[in-house]
Amino acid sequence: MSTSVAGSCPSQAFGAPSKSSSRQAQISPIYEDSARRAEAEQAGADVTVQTQHSQADLLQADSHKCRGTRPVQVLLNHAQTWELMQEEEETLKAINANNKDLHEVLKGLKSWSFDIFDIKKDDLPKMVERIFHDIGLFEALPLDASKFFGFVNSIMGQYRAHVPYHNFRHACDVLHATYLLLTLVEGQKMLNTLEVFALLLAALCHDVDHPGVNNAFLSITNDPLAIRYNDLSILESHHASTTIKTLLAYESTNILAPFSEAEQRHIRKLLVEIILATDMDHHFKIIEMLKSRSSDSNPFECSPPYSMLDSRHNSGTFPEGASSSSQSSSGSQTTVVPSRPSPSSTKDATLLLKMLIKCADISNVMKPFFLSKRWAALLLTEWFRQGDAEKKIGLPVSKNMDSENPVALQ
Ligand SMILES: [Zn+2]
Question: Residue 22 C-alpha to ligand 1 middle, in angstroms?
């Protein structure tokens, strides 16, 4: 995982007049990982010699170094931007407050008004576990609670805390929206347990290790990630790959271990498909598939039902947590997992999974306005940082990313 990206002041990204220095202390809580921040500051102090960092990291860090000397601009003549800026400050205060009791906050989990900013970052994995419990996955699947927390904490650690929008809180927010959408469309009647499991995992991991710049920036700057993935769904490929690596990295985080090899392969395939669907370059292709399917009068075709519990009962020989390569307690003979059909997903189920993650990923715009504004402010902060980096290296500033021309926001 790459490091760096010096901490920058979101207020400076907005060019806030005269507030910038006094707000520094308020802004600091957004950098929730002090160790990473220290590394980032170090990187920002001498970015020219740290060639092992990605191009995006270096450019961002360099951009942040120079921002402190940039003259304050008159940016606030756009009412909407001013409002967003105020909201950003409120958001940071909310993150800083974190006084609310988790048990009380989670009582509102089933509502679109659920305020995820009321949860301390370190408590977010508990919210994740609560959602998996509520959906019934701990009952339906052989999930080990200790491994589950190990995996979630590992994923949380790979989200970059200094990235204003695409951080672990956004991941948990998308997971929460997925959870609500599943309920809204009665998704569990159309998706089998493995598909629901893959969907929730994908929601949690869909932006892991996001550097805070977009695919176009990575491509035009010849970032190592762009080279690795041949400019194709660069970030989404990286998020999916990082997810799979995290699952396989350690026994203590491999929550897929109890599944058969065929089941593991199927879950991995679904994870990749669902995460890649969040690439907006695929948006119109997916929408066309949805339109085409919507005009088809055939009923929704569900995938074959999946139940590990039923399989065990049917066979009578499948031990808890065993896989196709498990050994018997004596260690003398490999226990053969009773044959059960390899899991598969229909086209309809796959399309529904893609639509659910896509809707959840951009759902904050349809939430109550007090939440929408916060997320918009954080996204704008991230975009302005990229715009500043583009100016620094002489690239045209991307649409909506020019902090000095907020009137152009569309
Ligand atoms: Zn996202």
Answer: 31
Known binding positions for Zn(2+): 170, 206-207, 361
Distance 157 CA to ligand 1 centre (A): 16
Selection from 235, 242, 243 nearest residue 280 by Cα = 235
Each residue of 3-18: pLDDT tens digit? 332 222 222 222 222 3
The Cα–Cα gap between 114 and 276 comes to: 27
- CA 86 to chain CA centroid, Å, is 25
Distance (angstroms) between ligand 1 centre and the Cα of 311 equals 35
What are the binding residues?
170, 206-207, 361
Spacing, Cα 174 to ligand 1 middle (Å)? 7
In contact, 117 and 135? CB cutoff 8 Å: no
Looking at residues 187-195, what average pLDDT do you find? 94
For the stretch 67-99, pLDDT in tens is 333 322 323 333 344 444 445 555 555 555 555
- Give the catalytic positions in this structure: 166
How far apart are alpha carbons 252 and 360 in whole angstroms?
A: 29
Q: Which CATH number fits domain 10-299+345-408: 3.20.20.70, 1.20.1250.20, 1.10.1300.10, 3.40.50.1970?
A: 1.10.1300.10
